[in-house]
Amino acid sequence: MTGQAMFQSILVVCIGNICRSPVGERALSAALPGLKVGSAGLHAMTGYPADAEATEAARRQGVELDGHIARMLTPTLGAEHDLILVMERSHRREIAERFPQLVGRTMLYGQWLDGGTDVPDPYRKPALVHEQTVSLILRASAAWVSRLGGKAG
Hints:
Helix content is 41%, strand content 12%. The chain has 6 helices and 4 strands, in the order H-E-H-E-H-H-E-H-E-H. The chain has helices at residues 3-6, 20-31, 52-60, 75-79, 89-98, 127-148, and strands spanning 9-14, 36-41, 83-86, 106-108.
């Protein structure tokens, strides 16, 4: 059984759902076309588009965030996905506290990098920080794709 067969849907989660999780969502969606991939925020800036700096950094690295609209993580939304990937260990702890029913399907986005790597929040930081964040997300995405049997790149 391939990883892709085990998971039909992935939800990528960060705080605001305007910087990191939209990049992760679009990267995984492009590489794993057979899966439903979405994103949400623990404290989402609901209704907002992706952050302008994040959008530019992502575009420069081949990821388009056009049309993204931030939404809040809810128990219902989480339950609709087989795998929830969070950007930081603290996000997993918050999910465990707020939505304990979801913790068993929640893993770190950077799980396969250096024994587990957090993806720090670039919000309101310089363009270079956004560039580094997108690069880290793309590396972590490639690691997930190889484990789930999709196409990297």
